[in-house]
Amino acid sequence: MSIKIVTDSTSDIPIDLASSLGITIVPGYVRFGNDTYRDGTDISAEAFYQKLVNSPFHQITSEPTPDDFEKVYSDCSLEAEHIISIHASSKVSKILKSAIAAKKRIKGPCHIEIIDSRSISIGLGLIVENAARIIWHHIIVMRLLKGELIVFRETVINQVLGRINFSILDILTVQISNIASCTFI
After folding, report:
1. How many alpha carbons lie under 13 Å from residue 97 in its C-beta half-sphere?
2. Regions in the chain scoring below 50 on pLDDT
3. Residues 8, 88: Cα–Cα separation, whole Å
4. Could you read off the pLDDT of 7-24 as tens digits, one per residue?
5. How far apart are CA 179 and CA 185, in angstroms?
6. I want to staple 4 with a disulfide (CB 3.0 to 4.6 A). Which of 27, 34, 80, 85 is the partner?
7. What is 3-28+63-184's CATH number, 3.60.15.10, 1.10.760.10, 3.40.50.10170, 3.60.40.10?
8. Is pTM beyond 0.85 here?
9. Quick one: CA torsion of 143, 13, 34, 67, rounded to 10 degrees?
């Protein structure tokens, strides 16, 4: 079973971390005057803050469009059977509405689960990062159970888990409880 994690740029997850964990980030938009940028794609955080200080225009932000989400979901569905899409709180953003609209457009066997994190910025980022790590551990456990990672079992499970008093399932249970405050849609 393959799973992809999707979030939005309000999660403030560094690009290198997102890449290493297989997280896809859908950028929101920021506009200064007539110039529109995709957050984290067309404009870095540093450039954004420079413009915030130096631009004569007040910035205006907007959520990714349903089309943006549809493209990401379609691309992810080529590689995954499931997509878990975790986003900024619906109480402070319309991002969730765009994700839901895109989900309704997607046809095919890929299941998309959209989650209202009830958080934003680093809180959202930590939820997404933990979800990606949980999925990675789950995939490793499933492959171990199928006997696909015998060498991995020898080098990691015995060395790491052999030294501590709990199992991978305990780790997953604890980490899942950390995202229990999220709303699943």
Report:
1. 7
2. 150-185
3. 7
4. 999 999 999 999 999 999
5. 14
6. 80
7. 3.40.50.10170
8. no
9. 20
